[in-house]
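Thread: "does anyone have the structure for this chain?"

Original post by V.I.:
We have the sequence but no experimental structure in hand. Need at least a predicted one for the grant figures.
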Amino acid sequence: VQTLQQQLSLLTAMAPNLAQCTSSEKQENLYDVHQQIDQFLCKQTHQNAVKEETVKNSMD
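Reply from O.Q.:
Generated one for you, tokens below.
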């Protein structure tokens, strides 16, 4: 979650600069951000699934 918050604060800091970008540059930046967030969420989901599996196994 920390990483996501850092990303969002970074984006917020970049927002005024984005206003000066061309629309295609904006789209590229947004696409990159979406990619990073998707990867991050996938990783988190996977880690949580592994943790749950470990807990189940240790309870058996």
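V.I.: this helps a lot. The helical segments are 2-18, 23-59.
O.Q.: and Residues 23-59 form the longest helix (37 residues).
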